[in-house]
Amino acid sequence: QAKQAGRDRTVIFDKAMESLLDEYEKLENDLRSSVDGELIDISFQPILSTDGKKLESLEVLGRWFHPRLGLISPDRFIPIAENARLIRRYTLGVLKKACMVAKMEFGVYPDLRLSVNISVQEMLENDFFDDLHAILLETDFPPHLLNLEVTESLFAKNESEMTETMLKCCELGIKFHIDDFGTGYSSLARLHALPISILKVDRAFVNRIGQGGETLIKAVIEMAHGLNMKVICEGVETPGQASCITQLGGDYIQGYLYAKPMATAELSMWLFNFTHQETSPKLIH
Ligand code: C2E
Ligand code: MG
Ligand code: MG
Ligand code: MG
User: Fold this and answer.
1) Which residues, 6 or more positions from 126, have their beta carbon under 8 angstroms from its beta carbon?
2) What is the gyration radius of the CA atoms in the chain, in angstroms?
3) Is the CB of 62 under 6 A from ligand 1?
4) d(CA 239, CA 246)
5) What is the C-alpha separation between 133 and 185, in angstroms, rounded?
6) Which of 42, 43, 228, 235 is the most exposed place for a label (fewest CB within 10 A)?
7) Is 78 close to ligand 1, i.e. is its CB under 6 Å away?
8) What's residue 282's pLDDT?
9) Does residue 128 contact residue 150 with C-beta atoms inside 8 Å?
10) Interaxial angle between packed helices 128-139 and 87-104, expressed in degrees from 0 to 180 and rounded to the nearest 10
């Protein structure tokens, strides 16, 4: 009887696995047609100086509304897109859309910067740079107003090709930000050799302010400044966190405390209010 029960469990497990795989495959197919049909939307989250008065850039974040499943987080669909080799098409679609929105809706702010997330895999494909360049030309978006956010895991592979692509981007005036800094394992020597302007401290560390997180943040800020880089702290939700980061000498803050990711219409209002503050805030270049 015990054996029978074991077998049943195996059957149940296989069925569960099967339906998980089915679900995954369905999601992958839906994603494929959504990417092609440009059904994935974008939102924008402001990155501000620690005092909240100056805007560094707007981070562009993908939003996928699935007709059956509702809103699916990029943390869930980006890995699927990477596995299905859809990520390149996806990112270039996001970039193009963001550049067009910036030009058409936010043209009154000519110094507005955008930060776009790039995946490891696509950055390693050799014509990535050409496609990127083509989009910038086509949308007439100034390359010196573009930040590309890359993660540390990027540097684990094909370092020389990576560096070459990065340098070509830098020649156009594009800047690089290291995203989720502290969660990977990049060595200082490596980072130093690459054209990086900003480190983004992962929100896991901001979360732990008060329980030791500040020690790491302090070290990152000192190191970054020593290497002529700036620091953005991500996921800042409380005034306490913001004042701690300010005390430690952090440069920029991104998080719900100052602004959430917003769709285009909402961002228009936000930008209007922001630029009409009495203290005359600035767009930083
Ligand atoms: P990320 O680049 O580190 O983006 C920051 C994430 O933190 C965003 O989640 C943002 O909504 C969230 N966030 C911002 N402020 C706060 C806060 O105060 N509290 C909390 N709890 N969260 C905050 P989102 O939009 O879900 O994106 C998740 C990740 O998906 C991004 O992390 C990025 O790695 C990836 N991603 C998003 N859009 C794209 C894209 O277009 N291309 C690629 N390759 N990756 C993307
Ligand atoms: Mg990012
Ligand atoms: Mg991040
Ligand atoms: Mg992240």
Assistant:
1) 161
2) 21
3) yes
4) 10
5) 30
6) 228
7) yes
8) 66
9) no
10) 20
Q: How much helix, strand and coil, in percent to the nearest 5, is found in the chain?
A: 50, 20, 30
Judge if the beta carbon of residue 250 lies within 6 A of ligand 1: no
Q: What residues are neighbours of ligand 2 (ion), with CB under 5 Å?
A: 117, 149, 179
Cα 153 vs. chain centroid, distance in angstroms? 14
Q: Output the average pLDDT for the chain.
A: 88
CA distances from 278 to 53, 114, 159, 275, 282 (A): 10, 25, 47, 9, 12
Among protein residues, the one with the nearest Cα to ligand 1's atom 23 is 235
Residue whose entry in the numeric block shows the structure tokens 């943390």: 75
DSSP strand pairing (198-201 vs 175-181): parallel
Q: Is the pLDDT of residue 206 over 70?
A: yes
Q: How many CB atoms lie within 10 A of CB 279?
A: 8
Reported as a pLDDT band with limits 50, 70 and 90, residue 37 is low
Single pTM value for the model: 0.90
In this prediction the ipTM stands at 0.96
What number of other Cβ atoms are within 10 A of residue 188's Cβ?
Answer: 10
Pocket flag, ligand 1, residue 75 (CB < 6 Å): yes
Range 142-149 average pLDDT: 97
As a whole number of angstroms, the distance between CA 16 and CA 29 comes to 20
7-23: average pLDDT: 70
Report the length, in residues, of the chain: 285
Confidence band, pLDDT 50/70/90 cuts, at residue 197: very high
Q: How far is the CA of 21 from the centre of ligand 1 (A)?
A: 26
**How buried is 93 (Cβ within 10 angstroms: 0-12 exposed, 13-18 middle, 19+ buried)?**
buried
Q: How far is CA 50 from CA 114, 212, 226, 252, 266, in A?
A: 18, 20, 19, 5, 22
- Distance (angstroms) between ligand 4 centre and the Cα of 76 equals 11
